[in-house]
């Protein structure tokens, strides 16, 4: 039976969501909100049932999925990534409806792309709508901390009009719905997933550095799991939230203070954005709102990709996990 979490529309929750924080939101135990997706004993529920370890070894990766599907909401987890040499290891925290809509699925991604010892981890966000996997909307970032040393919070706010990604309550990306996008804005109900898997073919420097299983097992730790949205009955495709105000309690924007922090993050840490990739798009996609400071920073980081110079070799772009990692998971 679908569990309808109606607290999403409470005024106090609205205040919490506007601030981008989830520490005051109810945290479900694993058995209350999630099910194992794949990986046999490579998934381990620990402590009070509210923390999960996902392991990747030579046999398999592992993953879990929410028991319910959701139409909009706030979804969050505190994650500690594997340490040491993790080239080729992909840890993902994301929403998708690929099982229900195989040809026109939606997806919202946090992906961590592994690292070579001594180098920084890179993180990627991505957005797909209505099966638009050929127009992946990737952004990649460095981080101002080592995500393998401690837990950090990663959150997705999904509303009818926008999507915001947060790291430790700092908004790092805002994606607004535009009329020109049509069905490319994610709008169909989605499940929440977490996985760890072998992405050697593309994850670290375009596949140059692959997994070395002598450093296995690789363990990603998840805690403070938040599922706070409009649960949907999969047989009716309708939300129970109809009995409460639909959108009045959902944040409609980022506060001025948050926007400054987001701009600072993007200026210092963003390493790739599809909107500025002149080698990929002669004309930026219609939903892109270009920022001169962001463009300048990216040109300095990679003048070929972001300056429109002649490209001497092809650039690989990440396909949807629906066509890559889900082959391993069989059902992600």
What distance lies between the first and last C-alpha atoms, to the nearest angstrom?
21 Å
- Low-confidence spans: 1-22, 242-251, 310-320, 322-332
Radius of gyration: 19 Å
Structural class: alpha+beta
Order of helices and strands: HHEEEEEEEEEEEEEEEHEHHH
How many strands? 16
What is the overall pLDDT average? Answer: 81
General shape: globular
Number of continuous helical runs: 6
What can be said about the biggest beta sheet?
Answer: 8 strands, antiparallel
What strand order characterises the main sheet?
A: 1-4-13-6-7-8-9-16
Helix content: 10-25%
Approximately what portion of the residues adopt beta-strand conformation? 25-35%
Note down, in words, how this protein is organized.
The protein has 332 residues and is α+β, with helices and mostly antiparallel strands. It contains 6 helices and 16 strands. The radius of gyration is 19 Å and the shape is globular.
Give keywords.
single chain; about 325 residues; alpha+beta; eight-stranded antiparallel beta sheet; about 15% helix; globular; disordered N terminus; disordered C terminus
């Amino acid at each position: 039976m679908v569990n309808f979490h109606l607290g999403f529309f409470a005024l106090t929750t609205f205040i919490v969501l506007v601030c981008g924080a989830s520490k005051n939101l109810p945290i479900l135990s694993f058995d209350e909100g999630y099910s194992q997706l794949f990986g046999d004993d490579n998934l381990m529920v620990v402590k009070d049932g509210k923390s999960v370890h996902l392991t990747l070894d030579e046999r398999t990766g592992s993953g879990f999925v929410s028991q319910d599907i959701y139409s909009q909401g706030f979804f969050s987890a505190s994650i500690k990534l594997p340490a040491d040499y993790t080239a080729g290891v992909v840890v993902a925290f994301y929403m998708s409806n690929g099982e229900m809509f195989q040809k026109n699925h939606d997806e919202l991604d946090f992906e961590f792309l592994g690292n070579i010892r001594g180098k920084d981890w890179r993180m990627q966000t991505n957005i797909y709508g209505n099966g638009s996997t050929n127009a992946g909307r990737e952004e990649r970032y460095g981080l101002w901390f080592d995500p393998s040393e401690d837990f950090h919070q990663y959150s997705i706010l999904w509303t009818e009009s926008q999507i915001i990604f947060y790291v430790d309550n700092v908004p790092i990306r805002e994606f607004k719905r535009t009329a020109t996008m049509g069905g490319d804005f994610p709008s169909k109900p989605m499940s929440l997933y977490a996985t760890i898997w072998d992405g050697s073919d593309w994850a670290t420097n375009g596949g140059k550095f692959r997994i070395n299983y002598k450093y296995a097992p690789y363990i990603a730790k998840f805690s403070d799991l938040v599922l706070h949205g409009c649960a949907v009955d999969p047989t009716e495709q309708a939300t129970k939230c109809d009995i409460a105000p639909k959108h009045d309690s959902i944040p409609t924007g980022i506060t001025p203070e948050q926007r400054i922090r987001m701009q600072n993050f993007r200026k210092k840490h963003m390493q790739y954005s599809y909107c500025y990739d002149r080698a990929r798009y002669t004309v930026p996609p219609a939903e892109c709102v270009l920022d001169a400071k962001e463009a300048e920073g990216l040109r300095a980081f990679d003048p070929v990709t972001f300056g429109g110079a002649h490209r001497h070799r092809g650039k690989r772009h990440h396909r949807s996990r629906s066509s890559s990692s889900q082959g391993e998971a069989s059902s992600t």
